[in-house]
Specification:
Ankyrin repeat protein; Cul2-RING_E3_ligase_SR; mainly alpha; Ankyrin_rpt-contain_sf; disordered C terminus; 14 helices; about 45% helix
């Protein structure tokens, strides 16, 4: 009588199981087994795919083993290194020659960004990158449909912290005409109220080494957005009535910051009210109903 036995897992499944278990010894055994069964090209492809997966998960020890075994550092892109970054991970990637000025393709996903775009919420990570001499003179200020990427400080105004914004600005990055607009848009989307001080003294108590946007609780993101609005208007004195473009026929041109808040009809009322208190003109050029599927509201 024959006995049914389960087939041996494929090398790919063994590597995936090791990653799931977050086990370096298990990953080492899986890679050694793959080297016995696969040719060099297949084994390298398997390790490169695994490297991308573990870097996206912020698993530095697993990434270090794969790089030691010959995984190709150039297989990584901005979406990999910016997903769950940490100082330890960045130091590892630096030691294997990763180029932190490497931009992603100008497609709807990577949008031409470099890693610093992905970490502007975290001043420590931003400072680490600045200390490596990464470029901050990046992006486009004016555009017809979208910017891939936008100015770095425009991105920071949208998702970053004030501390990061200041550090990047001190290195010479440009404060563009859409910087306040970007901050208003994100704050309005989140339903922030710049007059609400309930989050002002709250401190981040997140555990764990990685500092990706996906790790941030909603309250922390809201706190950053409120602090950014106050800084841009009350300290940097950006124009609350500034137009986002000289050509208001552009699909990406929505008018003044107030129009960006009013565009979020269900969540932007508190931001709009705050802007009016700061001198926003309620009779500014009206929002043009010309948004297309390729306009920034969908592309970014």
């Amino acid at each position: 009588m024959s006995t049914n036995t389960a087939p041996e897992p494929t090398p790919k499944k063994q590597v995936e199981a090791a990653i799931l278990a977050d086990s370096v010894p298990q990953l080492k055994a899986a890679v050694e087994h793959a080297a016995d069964l696969l040719d060099l090209e297949e084994c390298t492809e398997l390790m490169n795919d695994a490297l991308k997966n573990v870097v996206r998960e912020g698993r530095t020890a697993l990434a270090e083993h794969l790089l030691y075994e010959g995984a190709d550092i150039t297989a990584l892109d901005v979406l990999d290194v910016g997903q769950k970054p940490s100082i330890a991970l960045f130091n590892l990637l630096k030691s294997y020659g990763y180029d932190f000025n490497k931009a992603g393709p100008p497609d709807p996903t990577a949008k031409g960004r470099t890693p610093i775009y992905k970490v502007t919420h975290d001043a420590e990570l931003v400072q680490w990158l600045l200390d490596q001499g990464v470029s901050v003179d990046l992006g486009h200020e004016d555009y017809w449909y979208w910017a891939r990427p936008p100015l770095l400080l425009q991105e920071s105004a949208s998702i970053g912290s004030v501390a990061s914004f200041k550090a990047i600005k001190e290195r010479g990055a440009k404060v563009g005409r859409r910087t306040l607009h970007a901050a208003v848009k994100e704050a309005a989307v989140l339903g922030c109220d710049p007059d609400d001080t309930s989050l002002d003294s709250r401190q981040d108590d997140k555990d764990g080494p990685t500092r990706g946007l996906v790790d941030l609780p909603e309250w922390f993101h809201k706190k950053n957005r409120v602090e950014m609005l106050r800084y841009l208007v009350d300290e940097l004195h950006l124009d609350v009535n500034g137009l986002d473009s000289d050509d208001q026929s552009q699909p990406s041109a929505w008018g003044t910051p107030l129009r960006y808040a009013q565009r979020e009809r269900e969540t932007g009322a508190a931001v709009a009210k705050w802007l009016l208190k700061k001198g926003a003109d309620p009779d500014a050029p009206p929002l043009l109903p010309t948004a297309t599927p390729e306009s920034p509201q969908n592309a970014d």
